[in-house]
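Notes from the pairing session

We agreed to fold both candidates in a single pass and log them together. This is the raw record for the first candidate, unedited. Please don't reformat it; downstream parsing expects exactly this layout.

Candidate A
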Amino acid sequence: MLSREHLRIPRNWEIIAGADTGTYMGGAICAIDPNYELYVLEEFPNYRYTGDGTIELTGETVGDWIRRFGSRLQHYTKQRRGNFAWADFNTPFKTEVGQGFKFKGNKKPLELRTEITREYLRNGRLHLMPWLETIPYEMEEAHYPEKESAGTGAFKRVKLKDHCLDGVEHCASRRPHPDFTESAEAKKTGIHAIIAQNMRLETRGSDPHLGAQ
């Protein structure tokens, strides 16, 4: 089976990362191609889900998690310094935390981040690599209140089982709003072969808020 080490990201693609910081640390590294397709390359939980869906810490220290996340981001960006991941604006990690790596506060609210991610999903522009385990599970488990928010008219996602999914939403929210109605065919690269061979994201569940049909 093809693995993440087979990935060759074209130089004109952007690498972007997002994270959720706290007791449960979660992160994601994504690539964005010139047609605004979003590819989730890797995930970084410091936790796991048991057979009954309970979440538990793996015992990894915050320092070890940062080093693991930062080293993989270096691998994709080819930069030893200046790498960062978007996180909630109130994250306590605002300065460099090691590995030439830091967090930047994302001022875009959760509702907007969720809506942009849903747009990517509805239009088939968000792709999960086949070796991911935590993010597909968190997408399946994502749920929303039955009624819209009185203030915004939006269905704000309930914060539960979502620490790596948060990272994906941060990545999606940092992009401009492309016109997904355009039908231009994207140039195929090696990453598409991996996706085609190991399809993991088709229609997951039946939650209309995630764009499932």
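Candidate B (folded immediately after A)
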Amino acid sequence: MAGGRIVAVLAARGELDAIARARLLLGDSGLWLAIATNNALLLLESVSARKALDMLLSLASRADIAALIAQGAICVEGAFFLRSGAFARLATCSLSGLSRQALITGQPPTPSRRVPEAVLYAYESRLLRDGNSPERLAAKIATSAGGVGAGVLALEAQKRPRVILAASNRARLCITHLGSAALAVLEKGEGIEPGCRSDAVARLEPLRRAIRVMHWGIDRILYT
């Protein structure tokens, strides 16, 4: 799959159609999967599409879920303090390797500077430490760090998980509403298809057996 793809699935309990549709968008192996449900974050690396599908279907049959699935992307997971003081676990993916600017900003230890995941983690850590929100983190990874698009799954204690997706002008973000579920796809390309956008940030979160989706222009997130 040239260029990679990041897929987000948010579904109320028992809403399985979005998961089946997500399976059709992905290759057969090498998936990176993060699933948030019931204040827990589950991470699976280099899994097959069948295993990912089985895991998502099993969890979604019993609880609301938010999932970030990536293939051909750079992904990391970690625990951080947000600007509000809240302790959160974040799963973060970038559609491309980051620039030298991100390397200088993040300052990973010298032995790790050639590891794309280390550069992404160091850059993310620095931005969050400086008070950036997960939304601004995604936008900066997608633009000023030399990236194309980024996805962040954020889980704070006692709060519902949220997924943030950011697309630069070299990527497109397409979101489909499916009743009590939503499916979002982030990939390289211009946002010319119906329901697709570029230079945009979207936040998706479950709310009373519905999925709330909010959109912003990427410049609004970066500069206000």
